[in-house]
């Protein structure tokens, strides 16, 4: 039974750690399906996390913090869109610039406003998204097998975790069953054909980067007000880049993206769980190696196990309307 409990706790951690990856991965999916590569997922998440931590500190409201995170992230997304859509700039350079701006600005503002080394004060429970116990979870807790599964694995997560996983079928429906999704995928494959049909390519792409900003903002708010209790310097810790890797691993499909994020979340959970625990034959593994494990396996998986991943044909290419 102890082994069963350990496995449940590991999977529970996997779900919690996968949520921000999944939100950022879906954000990149909207953007890249429209032909806009966005390496700035990391920066938008980080800026959103800082905005959420700061506003939650001042207002004591997790929902105002979420709104602030979304607004800041969307603003950065519009900056990326202005540079890469309106002015047809290099999308990679624009995304990297956003990452650098967010990394520096959050620390400077954090120190100026709170004088705690770039972090925000610790948030009380009233200013956070707390775990939700689903109906019947406490009553079923003692039921063998099914009870612990429902109580530990399904129940007890914050509302943002449930939102992240509900967005997977919603994103699939939007992309494959709506007119907006059809046009979004078309503009990422053949923007000239979309333009010929009388549809504005820039406006479609702007809507895609707005969707991207909204989801990155939710991911940042989750880090600061649900998974954590305030903003900490560089708290995204490369999650935006892992989300990009998961997106490539999933070949730009929402359901596969969910499983890819769960895989990377599981690797992260294993890395945290195994810190300080000796392994058979090998002995105790250095903490630094366990922390690097998800990133190492990300490279290994991308290098040898996904086959040929073909991005949208117009991805990363600025569209110039023919006269």
Mind sketching the topology for me?
Blueprint: H1 2-33, H2 41-59, H3 62-86, H4 91-114, H5 146-154, H6 159-177, H7 179-189, H8 191-196, H9 201-227, H10 239-249, H11 254-273, E1 278-279, E2 283-284, H12 287-304
Antiparallel strand pairs: 1-2
Please give a structural write-up.
The protein has one domain: Orthogonal Bundle (ABC transporter involved in vitamin B12 uptake, BtuC). Helices cover 68% and strands 1% of the residues. The protein contains twelve helices and two strands, in the order αααααααααααββα. β1 and β2 form a beta hairpin. α2 crosses α10, α3 runs antiparallel to α4 and α10 runs parallel beside α12.
Primary descriptors:
single chain, 323 residues, mainly alpha, ABC transporter involved in vitamin B12 uptake, BtuC, two-stranded antiparallel ribbon, 12 helices, 2 strands, globular
Provide the helix percentage: 55-70%
Question: CATH topology, which one?
Answer: ABC transporter involved in vitamin B12 uptake, BtuC
Number of strands: 2
State Rg: 20 Å
């Amino acid at each position: 039974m102890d082994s069963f409990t350990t496995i449940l706790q590991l999977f529970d951690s996997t779900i919690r750690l996968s949520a921000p990856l999944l939100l950022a991965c879906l954000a990149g999916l909207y953007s890249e399906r429209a032909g806009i590569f966005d390496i700035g997922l990391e920066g938008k998440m980080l800026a959103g996390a800082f905005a959420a931590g700061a506003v939650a500190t001042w207002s004591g409201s997790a929902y105002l913090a979420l709104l602030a995170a979304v607004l800041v992230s969307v603003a950065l997304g519009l900056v990326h869109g202005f540079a890469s859509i309106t002015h047809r700039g290099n999308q990679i350079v624009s995304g990297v610039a956003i990452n650098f701006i967010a990394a520096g600005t959050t620390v400077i503002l954090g120190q100026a406003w709170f004088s705690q080394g770039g972090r925000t004060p610790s948030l009380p429970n009233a200013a956070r998204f707390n775990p939700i116990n689903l109906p019947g979870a406490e009553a079923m807790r003692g039921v063998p097998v099914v009870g612990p599964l429902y109580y530990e694995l399904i129940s007890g997560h914050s509302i943002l975790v449930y939102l992240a996983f509900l967005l997977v079928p919603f994103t699939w429906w939007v992309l494959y069953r709506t007119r907006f999704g059809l046009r979004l995928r078309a503009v990422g494959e053949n923007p000239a054909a979309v333009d010929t049909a009388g549809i504005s390519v820039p406006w479609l792409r702007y809507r895609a980067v707005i969707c991207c900003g909204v989801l990155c903002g939710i991911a940042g708010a989750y880090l600061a007000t649900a998974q954590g209790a305030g903003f900490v310097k560089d708290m995204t810790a490369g999650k935006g880049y892992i989300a990009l890797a998961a997106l490539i691993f999933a070949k730009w499909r929402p359901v596969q993206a969910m499983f890819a994020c769960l895989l990377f979340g599981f690797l992260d959970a294993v890395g945290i769980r195994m810190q300080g625990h000796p392994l058979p034959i090998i002995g105790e593994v250095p903490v630094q190696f366990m922390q690097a494990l998800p990133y190492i396996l990300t490279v290994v998986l991308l290098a040898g196990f996904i086959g040929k991943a073909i991005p949208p044909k117009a991805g990363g290419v600025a569209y110039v309307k023919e006269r």
